[in-house]
Design a protein that fits this description.
single chain, 731 residues, six-stranded antiparallel sheet, five-stranded parallel sheet, globular
Length: 731
């Protein structure tokens, strides 16, 4: 199965780097106010605001009356920053950031045409994504009502031209390198710079493009797109980006200044220049929190141990999966017999047949390109074509495992990934204080099968050697426990590797079209509701924030998110009210139109805690929830190993609390609150060091409860009427 825990770990730089003193407290740093009207956005830089004066900080303050999930200057006291494993506001309260990815439709240009793709690639535009500016108040009002006021704004590398011109109206979010290799992210000219022919990639299997041309919905195409990471186009591009100087030194191209540079320098410079332009354009905006530099990076061929097979444990095998050697031959215009893999059990897939591909002898390389039509890996002596035998020959089987010049064994993380993002000066002692860990998590078995029921599998555990019977879970409680264990493992691994740093799950979500799209026919979403609840319960237990994948206004039932057959959005503009019919008041149920599975993802959570959170649980079926936190106390022995439920709680490990008020987001649809704040405020008499506060809330009536009571009233009235009629007849 495809591993999403190693290859897709992300790091986000949040704001200006804080300076800490010997006690770990933050030195004063200027910081601009956050915008009150818009959700806080990550992927971009947050600018600090001044902290309260000493006289104000000397006594507990009551924050201005805003709302629990308000991350503006008014809602946070003017500051939102990192301290240990938490985001903290100016009052020292721990902030739990929850929100959405905006949006899946950003993977596709606004002027994309399925029929003409990949033609006219120089004219694409992303202006208008994720929605027209005039619609923004509608969408942000909706997300605020649902408690999701922290967003990931998905910017793409696509609006950058080869001449260094940037579409500053819409500025990297990468899957399988680029739309032109079957994913999203990098612009078409990056592939052309390496020598690929954009119109010659499909026939030789260098890329699977049906998914970006409206396909991916039928059974034979379901879930094929992740296999694109191993195909010739994406794997070559990733290798050239990370390690072109090592493995493709002969490929040199001219940069925007007319200078000849290596392909690695060319690609990385364009990427970094794009980020420079983006940071200059939006870095000082008030609602910007941080930058996620790259989405789901992949190593390409680096550390590939065999030209004749990919690693079954880490690389998805589904459909036609040519080996690296077969990809080289196919891309050079030679037919090759390739294995075909289908879903199976207990192993995820197995090879069931073979087929000769590229009988048309289409080349993936441009004759007028920098390789003069030759495969880049043939140019570097990795393989060759035996003209006498009329067959391909592998010449350097272990080429991608060692430095070709020195013979030293290479490591993608240590030799290529870290040096690009983390200079040598970033030692454990000098690591930037404003870095957080933002991995992605999905239930891989649910994604792979696009199904969910009473049986779930811990794929993470199986990939790490877990005994199979221990990896199987039954029922809804089992799904909650399964997902909770997996997410806890990821979070605690982050604490072990990076120390006490905030963790936010940057992507997590569920497919709306699971179980063969049954819900679209019946309008019964019970399995989607159960799966979303299990995932969010796991996140609740881990005490971390997240951004759900995804909120897509363009989603439709049968086309989904219109990218590789995905259908993750639980909102669709097509189902929603707009214009004069939409009321922006936070208590208005008109904002809920267009959403699915509301009761699963609209749920209470402690947004700002006057202490250190140690427990939270919510029961979707009753609306009841419990939360617990501890007031930082005297120095004590901290846990030897980082733990989700045993955070550092000593006073010197947490900034001074200047507010006693804990604010819990309490949805009006649950509490039947007709006010707009949707906030439950809890204020103890005093902040006693070491004291644990535990709150249990049982919601007796809500929007759902009202309907239940009304039904009982009608039933009771009917029974009374029947009794009265019977009495009158006997009288």
């Amino acid at each position: 199965m495809l591993s999403r825990t190693d290859s897709e770990a992300s790091f986000i730089l949040v704001g200006s780097e804080s300076v800490t003193d010997d006690k770990g407290s933050d030195a004063e740093t200027p910081r601009a106010e956050l915008n009150r009207m818009l959700p806080v956005s990550r992927l971009r830089r947050h600018c600090p605001v001044k902290r309260s004066s000493a006289s104000q900080a000397s006594r507990p303050q009551t924050p201005e009356q805003t709302f629990a999930h308000d991350w503006s200057a008014a809602g946070t006291g003017g500051r939102l920053y990192i301290h240990g494993r938490h985001f903290v506001d100016a009052h020292g309260r721990v902030c739990n950031l929850r929100g959405v990815n905006l949006s899946g439709n950003c993977k596709t240009p606004t002027n994309h045409d399925h029929d003409s793709f990949p033609a006219n690639h120089a004219d694409v535009t992303f202006v208008g994504r994720p929605f027209p500016l005039e619609e923004a108040p509608d969408h942000f009002a909706r997300l605020r009502r649902w408690g999701l006021t922290f967003s990931t704004s998905a910017g793409y590398y696509g609006p950058v031209t080869s001449s260094g011109i940037y579409d500053t109206d819409y500025l990297s979010y990468i899957h399988v390198w680029s739309r032109y290799s079957g994913g999203s992210g990098a612009p078409a000219w990056t592939l052309e710079a390496v020598g690929f022919d954009l119109h010659g990639l499909e026939e030789p299997g260098a890329a699977w493009l049906r998914g970006v041309k409206g396909g991916g919905h039928i059974e034979d195409e379901r879930g094929l797109w992740p296999c694109g990471y191993q195909k010739l186009a994406a794997a070559t591009m990733a290798t050239c980006f990370w390690a072109g100087d090592t493995f493709a030194p002969k490929l040199r191209v001219k940069n925007t200044e007319g200078e000849e540079v290596s392909i690695q320098v060319f690609l990385q410079t364009a990427f970094l220049n794009m980020w420079k332009v983006l940071a200059q354009a939006v870095g000082d905006l008030e609602g910007v929190l941080g930058f996620e530099i790259m989405n789901e990076p992949h190593r390409g061929y680096v550390e590939l141990h065999s030209m004749h097979a990919f690693d079954y444990n880490t690389d998805l095998h589904l459909g036609h999966v040519p080996t690296a050697f077969q990809s080289f031959m196919l891309g050079a215009g030679h037919p090759a017999t390739v294995g075909f893999w289908t879903r199976s059990f207990p192993m995820p897939t197995r090879r069931t047949s073979t087929k000769v591909l590229n009988t048309a002898r289409q080349k993936a390389w441009r004759d007028d390109g920098p390789t003069n039509g030759l495969c880049i890996w043939e140019m570097h002596g990795v393989w060759g074509w035996d003209r006498r035998k009329d067959e391909g020959v592998v010449l350097r089987e272990s080429y991608f495992t060692k430095d070709p010049m020195t013979g030293r064994k290479v490591d993608w993380y240590e030799d290529f990934y870290y040096p690009f993002f983390c200079p040598a000066s970033w030692t454990a002692e000098r690591r930037p204080a404003n870095m957080i860990y933002a991995p992605h998590w999905y239930d891989l078995n649910g994604l792979f099968t696009k199904a969910f029921g009473n049986f779930t599998v811990n794929v993470q555990g199986l990939s790490r050697g877990m005994f199979p019977l221990k990896a199987f879970y039954w029922g809804h409680r089992g799904a909650r426990d399964n997902f909770a264990l997996q997410i806890q493992n990821i979070v605690e691994a982050g604490y072990r590797s990076l120390g006490e740093r905030p963790v936010i799950i940057g992507e997590c979500g569920i497919p709306m079209d699971m179980n063969k799209g049954e819900a679209f026919k019946t309008d019964r979403w019970q399995w989607q509701t159960c799966m979303m609840d299990a995932m969010l319960t796991a996140l609740d237990r881990a005490l971390i924030g997240f951004t759900l994948w995804n909120y897509n206004p363009d989603n439709e039932d049968h086309t989904g998110d219109d990218w590789n057959g995905e259908n993750f959005s639980w909102f669709s503009r097509r189902r929603a009210l707009t214009g004069m019919w939409l009321d922006h008041a936070q208590a208005s149920p008109t904002l809920d139109n267009g959403a699915r599975i509301l009761r699963a993802f609209v749920r209470p959570y402690p947004a700002k805690t006057a202490g250190i959170p140690i427990d939270f649980s919510y029961e979707m079926n009753t609306g009841a929830f419990e939360c617990a936190w501890v007031v930082p106390g005297p120095s004590a022995d901290e846990p030897a190993s980082p733990s989700v439920h045993r955070p550092p709680t000593s006073a010197d490990a947490h900034p001074e609390l200047t507010s006693k008020v804990t604010e819990i987001y309490l949805p009006s649809m649950i509490a039947h609150d007709r006010k707009s704040r949707q906030t439950l405020s809890i204020e103890p008499a005093a902040l006693t060091p070491g004291q644990v506060h535990r709150v249990s809330v049982k919601v007796l009536l809500g929007d759902f409860g009202t309907h239940v009571v009304a039904a009982f009233v009608l039933l009771f009235s009917f029974l009374i009427a029947v009794v009265l009629v019977m009495l009158s007849e006997t009288a």
